[in-house]
Amino acid sequence: MGGVILNELKQSVPSDSLKFIPIPSRQVIDLSWLDHATDLAGHVVRKYETGWRPVKGIAGEALGWLARKALFERHCTQLTQQICATDAAKHCDKIWAILDCPTVIQIATGVAKRLNKPLSILVWDAPELLVNSLNMDRWSASNMLYRFSKTIQHAESVGVICEQMQTAYMNQFGPKPYVILRLGIRRDMWYSPGPLPNSNRIIIGFAGSITAQQPFRQLIKMLDETNWRIHNKDVTLRLIGSRYTLDARQPQRIEYFGWCSLSETVRLLAECHMLYLPQPFEANLRPLAELSFPTKLTTYVAAGRPVLLHAPRYASVTPFLNDYPLGLACHSLETDSLRRCAEQLDRLPNESVAAAIDAVRHTEFNDSVFVKRFNQLIGAASNASGLTSAATKEIEQNA
């Protein structure tokens, strides 16, 4: 989804105002979101992020930390030098870094200081989530979180993904411009939120990757328990994404479309009766639910269909749906509760959902708001440093 957001941004700002330096975890990277090779200022490869333990226990953690510290810090020093040596870096007005991996967290401040340029950053997910996903030892994790806090403090403006992250970081790191920056989809991709023609089946749509495995499994279990029927109608689950693992123990009705372009994804979702939006319930994934924001909600709103939110009450989407009643929320993993919510959503008056969709499209999820807030993010750094020109460089991780 990062490539989708960057591509939308690239189509909405002057073509010569952004230069990209991807920092992938492998030599072969997907740059399909780039229209022209001239947008690419080069790329460097990140290494040594994943935890390594030669033996079990604290001794293994300590040895792994020492090895990673030596290799990782040396590599990041080399990356900083490489980035600063590019023509884009030498002639840029400011740095925009997306803090979505330990490498960028480590080098962003160093690049900005070495170039003596203002730094703006964007945080899509809480960095605590990287600790588990990368199997980091306690010392590496502590160092990464320390560097993250230092980067936030050094940055002159911070892009955040949702209101709860904005409040949390303001309280934790002190006052500065914290700009909410979420994907905005162009109006020509919006579908009418009007009712679908009467049908003898219900299509539940889902697009993107499954970051919330537990509630998704409960959705499948609920449908199995009801023999894939709601209100005496056959239920079909429509999946749009590159990879899913399903465990079918009885007949199921699933449409799998694989990876689709954004416009095709929105079109397929617009044919559904409701769109499923799960968020993790596990305690170790609380930062993901509480401080992150599912970009797929923007896609769902563009499709114009009611949303079935399946998330804990503390999830960032919960108060958002209170402000914009785009559908109904189920805050339980019990299949009976999920079934009742799905049944209620199927009979929810279309007018109320349509009004909420129209409101959120015009106030939050459109390309104009997206570009306006991006300019606020970059402009905050410009005003703080006395610079006025547009952003010309971005450090972006495209794993």
Description:
Helix content is 45%, strand content 14%. With 399 residues, the chain is of the alpha/beta class. The protein folds into 2 domains: 2-184 and 366-396, Rossmann fold, CATH 3.40.50; 187-362, Rossmann fold (3-Layer(aba) Sandwich). The strands form 2 sheets. Strands 6, 7, 8, 9, 10, 11 and 12 form a 7-stranded mixed sheet that branches. It starts with a helix and ends with a strand. Mean pLDDT is 86; it is low at 384-399.
Write the layout of secondary structure elements.
Elements: H1 2-10, E1 20-22, H2 57-85, H3 87-90, E2 95-98, H4 102-115, E3 119-123, H5 128-133, H6 138-154, E4 157-160, H7 163-173, E5 178-180, E6 201-207, H8 213-225, E7 229-230, E8 233-240, E9 254-256, H9 262-270, E10 274-278, H10 286-291, H11 296-303, E11 307-310, H12 317-323, E12 327-330, H13 335-346, H14 350-363, H15 367-385, E13 394-396
Parallel strand pairs: 1-13, 2-3, 2-13, 3-4, 4-5, 6-8, 6-10, 8-9, 10-11, 11-12
Antiparallel strand pairs: 7-8
Helix pairs in contact: 2-4, 4-6, 8-13, 9-11
